[in-house]
Design brief:
2 copies of one chain form a homodimer.
Chain A: E1 2-3, H1 15-27, H2 38-58, E2 66-69, H3 72-83, E3 89-93, H4 98-108, E4 113-117, H5 127-133, E5 138-144, H6 156-166, E6 169-173, E7 192-196, E8 208-212, H7 250-266, H8 268-287, E9 292-295, E10 306-311, H9 316-325, E11 329-330, E12 332-334, H10 339-345, E13 352-356, H11 363-377
Parallel strand pairs in A: 1-11, 3-4, 3-5, 5-6, 6-7
Antiparallel strand pairs in A: 2-8, 7-8, 9-10, 10-13, 12-13
Helix pairs in contact in A: 1-7, 2-7, 3-4, 7-8, 8-11
Domain Aminotransferase class V (chains A, B): 2-367
Pfam family, one (chains A, B): Aminotran_5
EC number (chains A, B): 2.8.1.7
Chain lengths: 381, 381
């Protein structure tokens, strides 16, 4: 199989990830840090090491500010609901995933004011638009680092600088860029960074988290047992315990740690370059075909390693079905849980076909896909 | 090592659990059901099979009413916050875990009325007390099936019948009993059942869930992408999608499915009997020793497979430390995230030493532990 669905979940993982999960379950399977015996301490050590690796990758000064969640969606919900109160104003783009738009739509019903700025699908959100939208009650700007539909990157650097100047918080959804693009929460003025473990970070599903800048205290989504400090009837103040009630996914975090170690070992620049050339080859090939609609940044510009396209008026679901059944190529059709992005692109409600690449893909696989798409476009498949 | 910390996380797991996690990651590592290609469908099939196995184990009529969460704590938070509104009254016991008491304490600040009934540490909550506490605005009774500190089981059958008669909902926290005691949500009149995957169900950490009776609609804890039905700006109504935003922990759920298959294959009665005789041997041995304080149901009565004890005035942390360092026995000291239970028992704030057993423990291990405790009690270790 040719796997081009890495923006949903990356596959395969480095061998070390499989091994780390298995060894954690078999040899260090106790409850992390809760019980004090040596297997519990070993499990706690795994969690701490992964916390430290996340901090290293994103230049987070203190690993204790990395909170683990079960996926990016939980990190985004925690960030949004934890920081915003009725009367607050929040700014977002028209390219966001339902993991941002749906919590915001729910919170709008409770008195949060939301400004959704219409956004270029090839350039991302214009910082001048953001500046003009800031009001006296603007508390937060929430943006994906890159769109999961067009791959376009918002200019986070410029928007972060602007937000910091205006005293507005910046929250970034790194689901499509962590592990593929450099992210430095200090240099980019990011206050809250949501990430998932099972995409570019090459870890297992069931992992993810939220970086919370030192000095920010959020309302937790959940309360419960936090291991230490069991006495108080309310949730402790200390980070990360405040936000991590119940037993963590230790084997998943062991795998995530192995994924990040792999990235640090290969080097982010090397991974980025491999994904860039693969994506450019795919995009260039598609541009040269008749009857193909392409969306997002033009060839040569930064984009997350994914390409959305349509073939004439063919249903994306049909195209994906043929790619899978006839050519054994895994793609994803439809709205990709981001209907707003498709409304902005003019591809709502049918959506697009998305091919998303990863470090383990090859030129040969790209060429096979281009052949396949060419055949489908010519009704030869 | 002798592992007696199964009430925190069970270990080891059946070999099939390790295999299922590994094979899911290696062979079926795509995003479950989101993308339509065959590896995505295989991943979706894993999730569905585990949902069906949970339903089978708890006699849940429709697997779609099983919602997966990352642990029991999330299931409890979803149930409590999803069903209770300001002005509602809720009844609970004085033996509950912080995963119940802390959400309730937080909700009390928002106008939920909480009655915490003082509860017998050896008999559980008296149904007559519950009946007397029901008010016109009582919406919910929330109880653990068994205490994680004393092992006592609340009489859920009788309380369920009472609750159904009075039109009050019953939510049960099965963290300490699922996989060890029969649970039948229909026969026991349970409306909401929170469970964890990594204890008696023999699955990996990072799994758990909430059964929601047909006809109940809860406010979700989180909103986001739910795979299908991406168009609406608000969360879909259908269960389980309404409550499962973001990518699920598919490898974890593969392992949980293997754990439940193991239980169904061995038979719950066989597992219960093995855990019962091991626990009785441990309890009986401790009862015959001088200077040991024991808590919970008397010998011969039902209890979850765990024993809490103290040796004279020795600090539980010190006893556990010696058990680990000198005898290589994993125990858990302290409050076990349930300070209310220790307040009820008179062991607050120092707590107790807890030994919790599982199907894979042996008589020999129990005898070694009894020898060790005897030596510690006699200051010979």
């Amino acid at each position: 199989m040719i796997y081009f669905d890495n923006a949903a979940t990356s596959w395969p993982k480095p061998e070390a990830v499989y091994q780390a999960v298995d060894q954690c379950l078999r040899k260090k399977g106790a409850n992390p840090s809760r019980s004090g015996h040596h297997m519990s301490l070993m499990a706690g050590q795994i969690v701490w090491e992964t916390r430290s690796l996340v901090a290293q990758l994103f230049n987070i000064p203190n690993p204790e500010r990395v909170v683990f969640t079960c996926n990016a969606t939980e990190g985004l919900n925690l960030g949004l609901k934890g920081i915003l109160h009725p009367g607050d104003h929040v700014i977002t783009s028209s390219l966001e995933h339902n993991s941002v738009t749906r919590p915001l739509a729910t919170m709008e019903e409770k008195g949060i004011k939301v400004t959704k700025l219409t956004t270029s699908i090839s350039l991302g959100l214009d910082p001048h638009q953001v500046a003009a939208a800031i009001q006296s009650n603007t508390r937060l700007i929430i943006l994906s680092h890159a769109s999961n539909v067009t791959g376009v990157l918002h200019p986070i650097d410029a928007i972060g600088k602007l937000a910091r100047e205006k005293g507005v918080l910046l929250m970034v959804d790194a689901a499509q860029t962590a592990g593929s693009f450099p992210i430095d929460v200090q240099a980019m003025d990011i206050d809250l960074l949501a990430f998932t473990g099972h995409k570019g970070l090459l870890g297992p599903q069931g992992t993810g988290g939220l970086y919370i800048r030192d000095g920010l205290s959020l309302t937790p989504l959940k309360e419960g047992g936090t291991g230490g400090n069991s006495e108080p009837s309310l949730q402790p103040e200390a980070c990360p315990e405040r936000y991590e009630s119940g037993t963590l996914n230790t084997p998943g975090l062991a795998g995530l740690g192995a994924g990040i170690r792999f990235i640090l070992q290969i080097g982010l620049a090397e991974i980025r370059e491999q994904e860039r050339v693969l994506t450019e080859r795919l995009l260039g090939g598609l541009e040269s075909m008749p009857n193909i609609s392409l969306f997002g940044p033009e060839l040569g510009k930064d984009r997350a390693p994914l390409v959305s396209f349509n073939i004439g008026n063919k249903e994306p679901g049909e195209v994906s079905f043929i790619l899978d059944k006839v050519f054994n190529i895994a793609a994803r059709p439809g709205l990709h849980c981001a209907p707003d992005a498709h409304r902005t692109m003019g591809t709502f409600p049918q959506g697009t076909v998305r091919l998303s690449l990863g470090y383990f893909n090859t030129f040969e696989e790209v060429d096979v896909a281009l052949e396949a798409i060419s055949a489908i476009a010519a009704n030869r498949a």
